[in-house]
Fold this sequence. Notes:
The protein is mainly α.
Amino acid sequence: xxxxxxxxxxxxxxxxxxxxxxxxFRDLPAxxxxxxxxxxxxxxxxxxxxxxxxxxxxxxxxLMVTKNSPAQLDELAADxxxxxxxxxxxxxxxxxxxxLRAKSWVAVVQALHATRADTLAWLxxxxxxxxxxxxxxxxxxxxxxxxxxxxxxxxxxxxxxDIEKRVTRDR
Length: 171
């Protein structure tokens, strides 16, 4: 088993947790996938959020490899000129999830798979030195690129738990 801080180890952890996330909603009926929970988010919205968050976090990690702080956050913010300032995580999550909410369930799942494929393709190009590059994440503080990959695993796990609780409650 590869060490978690190696490219192979990171990929293994990403793959394993993503497989568990996918299993959490596989074969669910559309009525459960589309039914809003107490927080207003349906399982579809949670999955859309996971895809969106990975896209944004990997975009930031890429900036960590190529730019120095604070240019990283400035450049990331420039990609979302219509986002109403000031930044809060909840407001940004809602803003980004609304962009995917209009898509079909099939399109949301495709986005989840496409985002992960892009993440893994980029990961395969990195060097050990790239994994140690740092940046100031808007929520998690100073992170390494390796830490950003850990956040993706933690994020999948947290939202898998949200889905599993919802499924248990709704069945």
